[in-house]
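During the second year of the project, the team shifted from modelling isolated chains to modelling whole assemblies. The rationale, set out in the original proposal, was that interfaces cannot be judged from single-chain predictions alone. As a representative example for this report, we include one of the complexes processed in the last quarter. Its constituent sequences, exactly as entered into the pipeline, are reproduced here:
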Amino acid sequence: MKRYVPLIVTAVCLFLTGFGIWAGDAAEVWRYGVTLCLSCIGIG
Amino acid sequence: MERKRRLSQYLFAVLANAYFLFPWNGLIYQGGLKKVCFPGLNCYSCPAATMSCPLGALQNFFATLRPGLRMGLFQTGAYVIGSLGLVGSFMGRMPCGWICPFGLVQDLIYKLPVPKINLWKGLKMGPYIFLCAFVFVLPLFAVDEFGYGSTWFCKYICPAGSLEAGIPLLLMDKELRSAAGWLFVHKMTILAVFMIMFSIVSRPFCRVVCPLGALFGLFNRWSWLQLKFHPDRCLQCRACRTICPTDVSFYNGTDALNSGTCIRCLRCLSICPTGAVSIHFTPVLSGEKNEIKIC
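Output from the structure prediction step:
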């Protein structure tokens, strides 16, 4: 069974990615990405 | 091999920071590529950044998880964890050695001709502690009265944000300069300490702090890409140990070759005179199948 762990891990990650896209995570990532992060630059 | 790796590092550093219009329009990139998480430490507030920082995105998801769930939203960061996991499940921590722009910064500064020191091995748990504490626990549980957390790692630690976003943005914007206070001084001090460390220790940020490296490192043992050590071919010449940027000592059995510390730069593979290290790419962990020939 241990031999198939890489395949299982990949399948789980594919599912998480798909679920995340379905739930609107990618749009949210875009929203975070285009908003100037004041914490990152040490102001907010 | 080392030239190919360096080329790859430069290429990805440029791709991740290819928005060259910012000096003219004064805006950070706002295109569709920002939906994609870059598999390396590259601040999304860097004016030239074309993709999003997975660590920043992940902290934001956790910081807003409670109010989101109350409103019936299921934006849990599964996309960020899944997409990073996909990269990790294929190649483990290889992006740290071949893609990460902040890794390139460390490699270049380490070339300075100053005395070098080794890092205490006990610090190798550091990235996992930073990952748990600053990326998961604090954003999720240290919340205000409305249930919102903060991006603790970005705010108080990340030197990549200070270098790639803080300095250029404050140089460009007078209003941001006037708003800078103690937090900016704190972040600049951390950046300065790391810059000094980069010149005397090999990859100190990757080995002691980087939560993204810790996340990829979790996949090293179970990734499709696997390194294999052949003790019967080893001359115990220690060349692999000497050249390893993260001080992995597998030739004498001290560390596992596919431990989470290895950034898979493949320098050990190219320097070994007897081919005692080989590389495999297979979805099923067995045998000698799919060996990749390196020339």
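Chain A has one domain: 2-41. Chain A has a mean pLDDT of 88.
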